[in-house]
């Protein structure tokens, strides 16, 4: 997996814009805008970033306000408000407002470049796993040849048993000694085990991963897209007049003019509500006429909406918007708002003509099987961590809901990598689960990197294991598969060793002086074949293996 990242690293580099808009002033104090190559940016340059453009360098905002999509850095889906004095990162996408930024870090010093460097360094830092069987097989044939020759010499020259008997023992040893069983013990179990795991949507990229996974004692999770769905969905709708459909119609008419992810989620709920109305035989509701739309950065939306045949002022946003517009906030609104915020929900209040009409909340839903997966890990004695770029309140709410032991919020990619290294320095075997570009360094550094299949290419390339459906129970199943396959490998090696330890002395004639038994070459050939068949048969039994967590689900 680690050797396949060159194309993904090129993809990371491709996130950077090729050009930037440099802002300078002439002698008269007039602003001059000039397009320059990204390589020509210097620290201290003032750059203009228009809506939809990528931030050209790690910078600090000096003028303007806008939401910036930082998903490629933090992994969080909701854009963050940026205004004067706040840092922005190279490669992130400016959304709805113009920003003037002052370049702080350029070239290899940017966060994006550091991610690339961290991936390359982490991928080269893992030593290959040494297999006991491989070391033994290397010495097996010369040792057996030496034993056979010594036995021949002892029977012929020391015991005086004759040339035919001595040759029979020599040939029987060479035939019965079976490096095949030793050689097949590991690859057959790995092949069957990996194939069986794939039937569950668990792609294990190499055999070394199986050895690493079985000893994991710490699982570290990214939050967004790993434990949660990765997109905000409507959680609660509270119309104060009781008409949910009407409330959604007015709110959606305003949100339809915004390109914010929250607006898209509200519109999706509005469409679903219309489908439900149609199924009930009722007439669906159209979006209403909207005029004088205004996006008030950091607060919400304001517009004139045709409500009941009249153009009325509609506000949709947070409490700051309501306070700015002089809306009376009663105890019911304030208590509801505080309750939802404490649950880490994004909360929007809607007012029409100065009167609060209701509240709608959105939340990045926790995946259905997240809690059961975490519970199973705890039963297995595995400690859990959650690292996220989200705020502490949201992180704490999610970790409490699923039962994760430890949580770190407001972290950047290098913070995740540092935490993985810290745990490894404490002697822990770390499995990291993530889905975003920002998770790639930690995925590469961890003893086992698990990439969720709903994530980015760079994450899946960096992972040792890919979970195709993004189901956390399959993360647990991958560990259980590893333990089972490694147990079967040990069983195979035991029988292969036991076979050779018992039958090589028999072939050497140790039973002849006592019972007169000679292990003939044809018997030796049959025994050798049976030893290989036994090892293969034990490996094939893995085709019937069902991980314990899947048995519980069934």
Feature tags:
single chain; 554 residues; alpha+beta; 4 domains; 23% strand
Give the helices and strands, then pairings.
Blueprint: H1 6-13, E1 19-25, E2 31-37, E3 46-49, E4 58-63, E5 66-69, H2 71-74, E6 80-82, E7 87-88, E8 93-94, E9 99-105, H3 111-123, H4 132-158, H5 163-176, H6 179-199, E10 202-204, H7 207-213, E11 218-222, E12 228-239, H8 244-255, H9 261-279, E13 290-296, E14 300-307, E15 310-317, H10 319-324, H11 331-342, E16 346-352, E17 355-366, H12 370-379, E18 383-387, H13 392-402, E19 406-408, H14 413-425, E20 430-434, H15 440-445, E21 448-452, H16 457-462, E22 465-467, H17 472-507, H18 512-515, H19 521-540, H20 548-553
Parallel strand pairs: 11-18, 11-20, 18-19, 20-21, 21-22
Antiparallel strand pairs: 1-2, 1-3, 3-9, 4-7, 4-9, 5-6, 5-8, 10-22, 12-17, 13-14, 14-15, 15-16, 16-17
Helix pairs in contact: 4-5, 4-6, 5-17, 5-19, 6-17, 6-19, 7-17, 8-9, 12-17, 17-19
How would you characterize this protein structure?
This protein has 554 residues and is an alpha+beta fold. The protein contains 20 helices and 22 strands. The strands form 4 sheets. It has a 7-stranded mixed beta sheet, with helices on both faces. Strands 2-1-3-9-4-7 form a 6-stranded antiparallel beta sheet, with no helix packed on it. Helix 13 (392-402) links the parallel strand 18 (383-387) and strand 19.
């Amino acid at each position: 997996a680690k050797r396949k990242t060159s194309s993904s690293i090129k993809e990371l580099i491709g996130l950077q814009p090729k050009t930037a808009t440099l802002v300078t002033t002439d002698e008269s104090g007039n602003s001059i805008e000039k397009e320059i190559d990204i390589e020509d940016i210097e620290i201290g340059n003032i750059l203009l970033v228009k809506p939809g453009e990528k931030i050209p360098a790690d910078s600090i905002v000096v003028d303007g306000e806008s939401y910036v999509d930082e998903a490629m850095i933090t992994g969080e889906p909701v854009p963050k408000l940026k205004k004067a004095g706040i840092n922005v990162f190279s490669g992130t996408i400016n959304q709805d407002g113009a920003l003037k930024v002052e370049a702080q870090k350029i070239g290899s010093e940017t966060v994006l470049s550091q991610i690339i460097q961290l991936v390359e360094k982490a991928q080269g830092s893992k030593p290959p796993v040494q297999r006991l069987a491989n070391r033994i097989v290397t010495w097996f044939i010369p040792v057996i040849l030496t034993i056979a020759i010594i036995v021949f010499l002892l029977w012929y020259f020391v015991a005086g048993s004759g040339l035919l008997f001595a040759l029979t023992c020599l040939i029987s040893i060479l035939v019965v000694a079976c490096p095949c069983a030793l050689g097949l013990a590991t690859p057959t179990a790995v092949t069957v085990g990996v194939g069986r795991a794939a039937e569950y949507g668990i792609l294990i990229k190499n055999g070394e991963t199986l050895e690493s996974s079985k000893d994991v004692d710490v699982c570290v999770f990214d939050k967004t897209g790993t434990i949660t769905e990765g997109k905000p969905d409507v959680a609660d709708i509270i119309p104060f007049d009781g008409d949910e459909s009407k409330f959604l119609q007015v709110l959606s008419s305003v949100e339809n003019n915004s390109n914010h992810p929250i607006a898209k989620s509200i519109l999706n709920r509005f469409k679903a509500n219309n489908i439900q109305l149609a199924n009930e035989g009722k007439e669906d509701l159209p979006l209403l006429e909207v005029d004088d739309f205004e996006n008030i950065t950091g607060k919400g939306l304001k517009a004139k909406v045709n409500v009941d045949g009249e153009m009325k002022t509609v506000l949709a946003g947070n409490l700051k918007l309501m306070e700015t517009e002089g809306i009376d906030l009663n105890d019911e609104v304030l208590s509801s708002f505080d309750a939802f915020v404490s649950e880490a929900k994004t909360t929007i209040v809607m007012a029409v003509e100065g009167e609060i009409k209701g509240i709608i909340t959105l939340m990045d839903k926790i995946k259905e099987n997240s809690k059961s997966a975490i519970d199973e890990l705890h039963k297995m004695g595995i400690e859990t961590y959650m690292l996220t770029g989200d705020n502490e309140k949201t992180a704490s709410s999610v970790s409490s809901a699923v039962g994760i032991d430890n949580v770190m919020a407001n972290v950047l990619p290098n913070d995740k990598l540092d935490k993985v290294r810290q745990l490894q320095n404490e002697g822990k075997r770390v499995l990291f689960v993530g889905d975003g570009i920002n998770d790639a360094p930690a995925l590469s550094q961890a003893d086992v990197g698990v990439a969720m299949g709903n994530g980015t290419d760079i994450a899946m390339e960096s992972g040792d294991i890919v979970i195709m459906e993004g189901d956390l129970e399959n993360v647990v199943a991958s560990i259980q598969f590893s333990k089972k396959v490694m147990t079967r490998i040990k069983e195979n090696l035991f029988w292969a060793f036991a076979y050779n330890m018992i039958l090589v002395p028999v072939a050497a004639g140790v039973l002849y002086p006592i019972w007169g038994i000679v292990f003939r070459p044809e018997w030796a050939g049959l025994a050798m074949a049976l030893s290989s068949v036994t090892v293969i048969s034990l490996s094939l039994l893995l085709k019937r293996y069902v991980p314990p967590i899947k048995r519980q689900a069934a």
